[in-house]
């Protein structure tokens, strides 16, 4: 390890905490500054808890825009772009459209595969070392229609060529893989390398490990970054407290864009709003997590409870709940899992989270271009939980000098 440094991490979501874990373990003096210890303002706690090497195709991919436009006028649709006058939104859409190409998928799939597989390995290691449950039974991409199954079979074929594992299953094979709940689907692709966990338990385990390695948590909302001579000299919270460190890491999820803007760094991001509902006593709890192709819904057993999550509303930072879209999530779930009915969800409080979505679907990871002591770690969109450990490990490696994976494509200065 290089000389021990004082490190200040802004943001205690899964990315900030994973980063703190690897840095504290490497012997650095780590502080995490978080405005909300309950994680109510983070995207990290209520998510679907999936670790997904299956997601080697970035959000910006061919067909997403066309599908989004088709869904624009359906109030229950899982993908929605909230129309509003905003130059930042217009630029984000323009960049997103520019990257939604086959070439972009081809240029990024190997990097996403390598990041995901390394992160999965680290999740397994962390679960053993920090003692939290990680279920390694894979994920079912369930398809209602023949056309949907054909599309997913093509993705599976592509994945096999990349060295990932995937199996196309008919309905009988789905029943064999998932004996614990009835599923109404034409078939599925089974992704055996995918895993799931409870994000709450993961967060608790990381916080404990950070403290055990001497890391500290500061409660406060960073309002100002002060720069001088190409360095971040200090950060100041809303309450006026000032903190400085050898290296500062910006891991504030969707709010990183505003913090970066203060120092002239453009990190275009839009909040990709999603909801989850957690059934505390499910009548038939599946063993495997699943994604419902036609409904774009994620289903994850979490211990004795069952979480159903969905929607991607490109919405800036708006956190209002669309009842229609939430109903769309519930109906899609009941459609695939016929033992359930929409009334099972009555009275459950929805959780809302804003995925930090970059316009090319790739994280921002690396040193800031004009500030020698500032590292950016955000923009993981729908894969933040999955990629959190590898992100943390790569930040620790960056501080040591060299990263084990080439992260040039994740350069925070790329836009
Ligand atoms: C419905 C849904 C389902 C999902 N399912 C999955 C899944 O199955 N697998 C997966 O990999 N990903 C999933 N995701 C995405 C994942 O949740 C995010 O990518 C991830 O949580 C991002 O983590 P983060 O640490 O970057 O950001 P956040 O979790 O948002 O954390 C950022 C933290 O920074 C803090 N902060 C911000 N600004 C400041 C400031 N100025 N001062 C102090 N603190 C600050 C915030 O309070 C927050 O706690 C899902 C998301 C949604 C919405």
Task: Explain the overall architecture.
The protein has 415 residues and is α/β, with parallel strands linked by helices. The chain has a single domain, classed as FAD/NAD(P)-binding domain, CATH 3.50.50. It has 10 helices and 21 strands. Strands 4, 6, 7, 8, 15, 16, 17, 18 and 19 form a 9-stranded mixed beta sheet that branches. Helix 1 links the parallel strand 1 and strand 2. Helix 1 runs parallel beside helix 7. The longest helix is centred in the N-terminal third of the chain and has 29 residues. The two termini are 32 Å apart. The site of flavin-adenine dinucleotide has 43 residues, from helix 1, strand 2, strand 15, strand 19 and helix 10.
Layout of helices and strands:
Layout: E1 6-10, H1 14-25, E2 29-34, E3 50-51, H2 64-71, E4 79-81, H3 87-99, H4 102-130, E5 134-135, E6 139-143, H5 146-161, E7 167-170, H6 171-177, E8 187-191, E9 195-197, H7 199-212, E10 216-219, E11 222-228, E12 231-237, E13 242-243, E14 247-250, H8 256-262, E15 270-279, E16 289-292, E17 297-302, E18 305-314, H9 323-336, E19 351-357, E20 364-367, E21 374-378, H10 384-400
Parallel strand pairs: 1-2, 1-14, 2-10, 4-18, 6-16, 14-21
Antiparallel strand pairs: 3-9, 5-9, 6-8, 7-8, 11-12, 12-13, 15-18, 15-19, 16-17, 17-18, 20-21
Helix pairs in contact: 1-7, 1-10, 4-10
The structure holds flavin-adenine dinucleotide (FAD).
Q: How do you describe this structure in short?
A:
With 415 residues, this protein is of the alpha/beta class.
* Separate helix tally: 10
Quickly give the CATH architecture.
3-Layer(bba) Sandwich
Sheet of most strands: 9 strands, mixed
**Helix/strand class:** alpha/beta
Between the first and last Cα atoms, what is the distance in angstroms? 32 Å
* CATH class categorisation: Alpha Beta
How much helix is in the residues? 25-40%
**What is the number of beta strands?**
21
CATH topology: FAD/NAD(P)-binding domain
Q: What's the overall geometry?
A: globular
- Could you tell me which ligands this complex binds, including any ions or cofactors? flavin-adenine dinucleotide
CATH superfamily: FAD/NAD(P)-binding domain
Report the β-strand fraction as a percent range: 25-35%
């Amino acid at each position: 390890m290089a000389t021990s440094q004082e490190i200040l991490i802004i943001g205690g979501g899964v990315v900030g905490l994973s980063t703190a874990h690897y840095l504290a373990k490497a012997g650095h003096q780590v502080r995490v500054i978080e405005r909300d210890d309950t994680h109510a303002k983070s995207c990290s706690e209520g998510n679907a808890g999936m670790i997904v090497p299956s997601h080697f195709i970035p959000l910006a991919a061919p067909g997403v825009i066309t599908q989004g436009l088709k869904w624009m006028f359906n109030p229950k649709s899982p993908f929605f772009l909230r129309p509003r006058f905003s130059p930042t939104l217009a630029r984000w859409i323009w960049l997103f459209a520019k990257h939604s190409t086959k070439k972009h998928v081809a240029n990024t799939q190997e990097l996403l595969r390598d990041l995901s597989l390394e992160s999965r390995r680290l999740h397994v290691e962390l679960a053993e070392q920090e003692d939290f449950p990680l279920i390694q039974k894979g994920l079912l991409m369930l398809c209602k229609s023949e056309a949907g199954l054909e599309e997913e079979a093509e993705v599976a074929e592509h994945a096999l060529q990349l060295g990932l594992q995937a199996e196309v299953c008919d309905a009988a094979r789905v029943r064999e893989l998932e004996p614990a709940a009835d599923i109404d689907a034409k078939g599925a692709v089974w992704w055996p390398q995918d895993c799931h966990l409870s994000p709450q338990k993961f967060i608790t385990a990381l916080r404990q490990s950070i403290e055990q390695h001497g890391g500290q948590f500061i409660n406060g909302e960073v309002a100002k970054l002060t720069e001088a001579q190409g360095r971040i000299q200090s950060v100041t919270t809303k309450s006026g407290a000032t903190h400085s460190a050898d290296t500062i890491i910006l891991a504030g999820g969707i709010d990183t864009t505003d913090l970066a803007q203060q120092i002239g760094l453009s990190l275009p991001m839009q909040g990709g709003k999603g909801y989850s509902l957690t059934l505390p006593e499910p009548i038939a709890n599946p063993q495997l997590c699943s994604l419902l192709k036609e409904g774009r819904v994620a289903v994850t057993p979490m211990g004795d409870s069952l979480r159903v999550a969905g929607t991607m509303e490109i919405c800036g930072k708006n956190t209002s709940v669309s009842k229609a879209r939430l109903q769309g999530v519930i109906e899609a779930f009941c459609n695939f899992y016929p033992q359930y009915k929409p009334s099972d969800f009555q009275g459950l409080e929805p959780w809302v989270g804003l995925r930090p979505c970059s316009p090319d679907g790739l994280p921002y990871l690396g040193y800031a271009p004009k500030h020698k002591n500032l590292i950016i770690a955000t923009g993981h969109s729908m894969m933040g939980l999955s990629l959190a450990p590898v992100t943390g490990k790569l930040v620790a490696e960056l501080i040591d000098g060299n990263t084990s994976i080439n992260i040039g494509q994740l350069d925070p200065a790329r836009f």
